[in-house]
Amino acid sequence: MRRVSQRASRCAVLGAALAAVSIAGAGDAQAQAAPAVSAAMDRAISRARALVDSGSGSDARNVLDSLVGAAANANDLGEALFWRAALAERIGDAERDWKRLIIEVPLSPRGSDALVRLGELEMLRGHPVEARTYFSRVVREYPGGAGTARSQLWIAKSYAAQRDLPRACVALVDAAATGVPEGELRLQAEELGRQCATVDKALIAKASEVPAKPTTKPTAAVPGNGKFSVQLAAYDTRAEADASAKRMVSRGIDARVDGDVKPFRVRAGYYETRAAASAALAMLKKRGQTGFIAEIAK
Fold first, then answer.
1. What is the pLDDT of residue 211?
2. Of 106, 222, 225, 293, which has the most beta carbons under 10 Å away?
């Protein structure tokens, strides 16, 4: 019973911290350029947020559940998943929706926001290496985006959490180059900067010359409801497929390579329905990327 009580207490503390992160993140997101979502979805999200503000959280979540189920296009689905996670009552529910967002609608304007939230959650859990995986994806896949500077600073903080202050100082320089946002993050950057002033410059120089060990990107299992994907290309060699997927990732497409024997297929996303996959393909075509809908073998 004591172990259960301790676990419940830890979850309660973590939940409170996550709520603070979610609310702050929601405010940041509102200040950014609004994603291209339908007017109906925008009105419904506003209604759900008003319900939360009035203390009717349960009613708000019912509205958001219906929005996720009825989303007419990929941008609407991404927006509905983002806000259902941001306003979630339980940690697991928020994490599930943010992960679903980056897997099912990788081209959603909310993709960067979801990755940042997942990284912040791992930092709250005390998992800096896992957190850095998410923040590094933001920097790599959304260069120049609103979440880039925030993620750069979190990368610096993740190294500091591992007591690798020289590498944290190197990452802080990268964060400063992209512009740390005003407010609490700026104060945290200044505090880390004061710590860096006490570090031997030779150690910092050495850390800047030796690249960090690459963070292994977790291999996402095919979701139980992932029946379809968008196939972008196929190659006879793994090297060609990997190179193609890497080029697409650099363009902001969450591409992967499927298959252990040729043809090695380059695909993006997991979708429960063919209609959802078709919506994602339509968005890709607008960006000049061709492809077709493929059923995922299980």
1. 55
2. 106
Is 220 inside a domain boundary? no
Range of the domain at 35: 2-125
Task: At 196, list the tokens.
Answer: 């860096």
216 part of a folded domain = no
Helix, strand, coil percentages in the chain from 3-state DSSP, rounded to 5 = 65, 10, 30
With a cut of 50, list the residues of the chain below it in pLDDT.
1-35, 214-220
Cα–Cα dist 264/277, whole Å:
20
Q: Classify residue 142 by its DSSP letter.
A: S
- Tens digit of each residue's pLDDT (9 = 90 or more) over 191-219: 888 888 888 888 777 777 655 554 444 44
Structure tokens at 102: 């980056």
What pLDDT is recorded for position 120? 92
Last residue of a domain, one of 62, 90, 125: 125
Question: Is 292 in a helix, a strand, or coil?
Answer: strand
| Tokens found for residue 124 | 């709250």
pTM above the 0.70 mark? no
Residue located via tokens 């979630």 = 88
Q: 110 and 49 in one domain?
A: yes
Sequence-ordered list of residues with C-beta below 8 angstroms from that of 168, at least 6 positions apart, any chain: 156, 157, 158, 159, 160, 192, 196
What is the DSSP track for 171-223? HHHHHHHH-PPSSHHHHHHHHHHHHHTTS-HHHHHHHHHSPPPPPPPP-PPPP
